[in-house]
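hey so i finally got around to running both of the ones u sent me last week. sorry it took forever, my laptop kept dying halfway thru and i had to restart like 3 times lol. anyway pasting them below in the order u listed, first the sequence line then the C-alpha cell line for each. didnt double check formatting much so if smth looks off just lmk and ill redo it

first one:
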Amino acid sequence: MIDTGDKINTDFSLNVVQNGEEKEVIFGDLLDRPTIVSVYMRNNTSGCDKQNKSLAEHADWFDEKGYNLIAISKDTCGSHKNYAEKLGINYTLASDPDYKFGEATDSVVEKKMFGNTYDAPTRSAYVLDKDGTVLGIIEKVNTKAHAEELKELIENL
C-alpha cells in the first residue's frame, strides 16, 4: 500500500456516475480540489451499505470543507445509478472492475471467501490532493462510522 506523501498515478480512465449521469473520465480530472476516495466491495451488501449511508449523511460537510467525495467499487454504472437512488447518494460513484485505482494505490490484495481465493482492493479510504499526492489514508474502514473517521482525519491534516 502507498504511504502518505506518495503521489499516485492518476492517468487512467473510469466510468462514473455524477448527478445521475454516466460518463467516462480520466481519474485525474476528478481531482479538481482535494478528494476523498472511499473503496468498497459491492453495492447492496450490508457493510458497504453502512459505509455509503455514513458518507451520504455527511456528504454536505465534506463539500463545505472543500473536498470532493468519490466511492469506488467494481459495480457497473447501471448498478451505481440504482444504488445512488436507493441510498440518496449525491456524490460520485466510480466503476472500477479492473481495479485501476487499487493498482494505483498498491492496495490489491489476496482475499479468501467460501474457500475461493481472489484478488481485490482493500476496503480503505484515501484523501488526495489535486495532483494525486496522498494526504491521508484509512487502511481499514469502520463501515458504521466511516464519515466520522474521515472527518477526524481531515481535521487533523
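and the second one:
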Amino acid sequence: MRRFLLALACACTLSVATAQGVLLAPKPVAPAAAKDFLTIANGVVDAAARPATAWNGPRNGPRAQSGKRIAVVAEDLHNGGILGAIDGVLEAARVIGWHVKIFDSRGDADMRLKILADALASRPDGLVIAGGDAHALLPALRPFAERNIPIVGWHVAARAGPVPGTPVAMNVSSNPLEVARVTALAAIAQSGGRAGVVIFTDSSFRIAQDKAAAMAAVVRACADCTLLEVRDVPISRCQELMPGATRTLLARYGSRWTYTLAINDIYFDYAAPVLTQAGLPNAAMAMLSAGDGSESAFLRIRTGTFQTGTVAEPLNLQGWQLVDELNRLFAGESVTGYVSPVHLVTADNLAADRGDRLFYDPANGYRDIYRRIWQRP
C-alpha cells in the first residue's frame, strides 16, 4: 500500500520515449493489493468529479491599473486550451480597461523567439505567454525583464507559481501532476483496474514530460493494468502524425489496447476518426486527457465517442487570473500563487458548471470577485 500512495503523492522520474521509440512498462506490483488500489482510485476520482466548490482564490488586491497595453504570445491558437485561456484574458481585459494584442507562434519552434521579439517591439506594459516552455523561451524573455516589463504565463512550466530561473512571475495552472494522476486513476477506476494503456505526450515541453511520467507511474502501480507504450507525438504535428500512430498501435496491440491517456485533448481530435474508420465500437476504447477540456473533448464525452473523461482546466477563469496577477505586478505587489482545483469531467457531470456549453466554467462567482478587487462595475 505504501508503494501505491507514493505513486500518487510524488512526481516520479520517467524518461519519455523519442518519436522513433517507445517506453515499455516494467513488471507491475504484487496483485494482492489490487483491490485496495482500486478503492483508492475510486475515491480520488469521485472527489475530482464533484461540482465546483466555492471560490478559494484571492478576495483582496490592488484596484485596476488602468490603460495598460498587454502583449499575449500564444504557442498555437489551434490548441483549444490556449485559445480558451486567451478568451478569458480578453474578457477580463475589457473589464479592467486594458488593450490586448495577440501574437501566434503557430506551434513552430523556429518562430517562437521571433514572435516574442515582435511582441517586444509593440512596446507592451506587460506580457502573457500562453503555452510554450518558459526555460526554452528564456533568451527572448530577458529583454522584457531588462525593460521591467512584467511577465506571467499559462502552462509554461511543470509547476504552478513563479518559474525559477526565468522572469516569469507566475505560471497559471492547475497542479499538472495532480491533473495527470487523476487522469490515470480515472482510467483505472473505469476499467476496474484492468486497463491496457497507451500514453501520448510531447517531449519538447517539460510540463508534458512530467504529466506523462506521473500517469505512467500510476498505471505501473496498478497490479492488473498494463502500460503498453508512451508515444511521443509533438502537439504541433498531431494532425500529421496521429492518424498513422493510431493505426500502428492498433496493429501492434489489437484488443490489448483499451485505454488511451494524453497530456492534451488535441491528440484525440485525430485519433478518434481513425478508430471509427477501423470499425472499433465506442466501448472498445476509452480516452482520457490530462488537460485541457476542449470543446471537441466535451462533445466526444457527451456523445459517447470514445472519450470518457478530461481533467478540464477552468480556462476562462485562468484568463482572469492572468490579468489579476499582472495587475498586482503593475501595482508593485506580489502574485497570489493561486492554483485552480483539479476537476474531472465525465458524462455523469458534464452538464454542470456550463459543461452543456462545451467548456468548464466553475460557478463560483470569480468574475464578480475580481471586479470587486479591481473596483470595476
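quick thing i noticed on the 2nd:
Residues 274 and 345 are 24 Å apart (CA to CA).
anyway thats it, ttyl
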